[in-house]
Amino acid sequence: MMASSFLQIRLFVEGFYDKKFVERILAPRLSERYAVVQIHEYAHTADETLRNHFKSLTRMPDTCFFILADYDMGPCLSAKRQDFRSRFEPLLQSEQILIVRQEIESWYLAGVPIENPFKVPIPNNVETVSEQKFRDMFATWCKRYRTNYAILRDEILEIYDWDLALQRSPSLLYCAKRLEIV
Hints:
About 50% of the residues lie in helices and about 15% in strands. About 25% of the residues are buried. A four-stranded parallel beta sheet has the order 2-1-3-4, with helices on both faces. The protein has eight helices and four strands, in the order E-H-E-H-E-H-E-H-H-H-H-H.
């Protein structure tokens, strides 16, 4: 499925912070390619409901759709994709399944500039950063400024460096290439 041959795109994302990331970082880039960009959360949606959505979307010739999932701690990327394919066969193909390594927090972290207000050193490759490791990295900053991780995520999105993020996160780069926004 080549994304560029469609007028509309739908992204199905796991949860609230995934949606927020996609709305702020990916959607503006997607809006340059598509007349319609829609983002849907699926974490609390029954598989049968998702199946019906996918079935409807496959009948829309001008619309493509992708599902974005956290890798978490699966055996491998192929197994994670296969899990989604088997749940939604024949409506979902492997190339429509985009995997975040390791969790969405790694993509947030990827775009934090080298010189950042959090005074947190960011690794060159963020693919192994889980939500817990993300929280641990920013715990001192959150305590010092008496803030929470939701506000921290918003602060990160305000200063997000897209080009740097693509260098630090191979899974984000892969996703961007699949969506044809790089």
